[in-house]
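Issue: ligand-bound run for fructose -6-phosphate - logging full I/O for the record.

Environment: standard queue, default settings, no custom constraints.

Inputs:
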Amino acid sequence: MNLTIFRNYDALSAFTADEMIRLLQTKPDAVICMASGSTPKDCCRYFVQKVLSEKIDISQFFFVGLDEWVGLPPALPGSCHYDFKTRLFDPLKMPPTQYHLFNGMATDLQSECKKMDSVITEKGGIDLMIVGIGMNGHIGFNEPGVDFNLLSHVIDLDETTITVGLKKYFTEPVTLKKGITLGLGTLMAAKKVILMASGLTKANVIQQAVEGPITNTFPASIIQQHPEGKIWVDEDAASKVVKK
Ligand code: F6R
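Outputs:
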C-alpha cells in the first residue's frame, strides 16, 4: 500500500482520471469498478472530458458499479445508479452491454449478488477499483464488522452510513436500511485498488486507514494488505497522517 498526496481535490481528480485513461490505452477491454458518492465526481468529469476531446476508443471498456442502496429506484437522484448514469453512461453514450450495476429494487437480492459475481468472473476480474471511504471506515457498503472474505452481499447499513447518506445525497425522504455491495474479497482480488479521499472531514479516517491496525472494525484498513493498494488523497485529507 502506498500513500500519494495531491495538492487539492482537482489535482487528485485529474490524476485519477488519467490513470483510468492510461489503463484503457494499454488494455482497451479493462474492467473498471467505481464508487459513487461525492469523491469520484470530478474524476468522472475529467475522464469524460478527456475521452471525448481526445477521441479515446472506449468501446471495449466494461464498468462495474461498486454498490447500491437497497429499495431505491435507479432513476432517483442520490442512488448510485443515477450517479453513474449521469456522470458516465449518458455523456459517453455507453450502451448497457458495457456496464453492470446492482439492481437495488430486485426482489431476489441474493441472485443479484450471484449475477454480479459471475459477470466479474466472466469479464476476467476487475483491473482497477476506485473507491471512497466512509466516516466509519467503510468501503462500498462493507460496514464495520464485515467479513473480509465476502464477495457481493447484502448488508444492514451502519447508523453512520444512514445519517451521512440521508444528509448528503438525497433531497427527498427515503428509507435507508440495507445496502448491496461488492465485498472485500472482491476488492482483494482486483488487480489494483485506489482509495480516494479529499477534504478535512476525511483526515481522521485516512490517518486510520493508513496508520491504524488492519481490522474489520475499520474495513478500509484492508487496503494495507493489497499488493497494489494505493491511497490517493489531497493535502487536507492527509493532514493527520503522521508518517508522510
Ligand atoms: C458509494 C460508496 C461509499 C462512498 C463513501 C464515501 O458508492 O461506495 O462507500 O465511497 O461513503 O462517500 P463520499 O465520497 O460521498 O464521501
